[in-house]
Design goal:
Helix content: 10-25%
Structural class: alpha+beta
Number of helices: 4
Radius of gyration: 15 Å
CATH architecture: 3-Layer(aba) Sandwich
CATH superfamily: Gcn5-related N-acetyltransferase (GNAT)
Order of helices and strands: EHHEEEHEEEEEH
Shape: globular
Largest sheet: 9 strands, mixed
Number of strands: 9
Distance between the termini: 32 Å
């Protein structure tokens, strides 16, 4: 497996990853919001091409994708919103998601980003250093439970980074 930046030729494959990863077995014709979200994020001012990463197999086929986009804390562009993170079902539970998480967090830290925020499962993301965002003084834009709204401080983080978090605009349109 190789982790690299997404290129223009990966757009359809990335969409296919999210369509498969988030498919609803009870509603097979339903389009998962994650697939459309990635398309909308690409067109948004918060898109950061260096933080849209794909995992490829030995043949170069895209098997996973993760993205971070510009977020704001207290109105300031000092944080990132992570997601979606998707892996083709045949590649799940094989370390692809873990590799993508480590790669995107490392890339964000190398860019001197301060904080990465996500809405996710509290049994999965703490292994990557995420904890309830409210513990860092960062509050969710909606009344989500604090167990699910998590943040990961990076090297550039300082305790003065506090306030309400806002994702890139396409998240607000979900």
């Amino acid at each position: 497996m190789l982790i690299r930046r997404e290129t223009a030729t990966d757009v359809d494959a990335v969409r296919a990853v999210h369509l498969a990863a988030f498919a609803d077995r009870e509603k097979p014709d339903a389009v998962p919001v994650e697939a459309g979200l990635v398309d909308a994020l690409r067109a948004d001012a918060g898109w950061l091409p260096a933080l849209s990463l794909v995992a490829t197999d030995d043949d170069g086929q895209v098997v996973g994708h993760v993205v971070c986009t510009r977020g704001r804390v207290a109105g300031e562009p000092v944080a990132l919103g992570l997601g979606p993170l998707g892996v083709l079902p045949a590649w799940q539970r094989r370390g692809v998601g873990t590799a993508l998480m480590h790669a995107v967090l490392g890339a964000a830290d190398a860019r001197h980003e301060a904080l990465v925020v996500l809405l996710g499962h509290p049994d999965y993301y703490p292994r990557f250093g995420f904890r309830p965002a409210v513990d860092l003084g960062v509050t969710p834009p909606q009344p989500w439970g604090p167990r699910y709204f998590m943040a990961r401080p990076l090297t550039a983080w300082t305790p003065s980074l506090r306030g309400e978090f806002a994702y890139a605009q396409p998240f607000a349109e979900l």
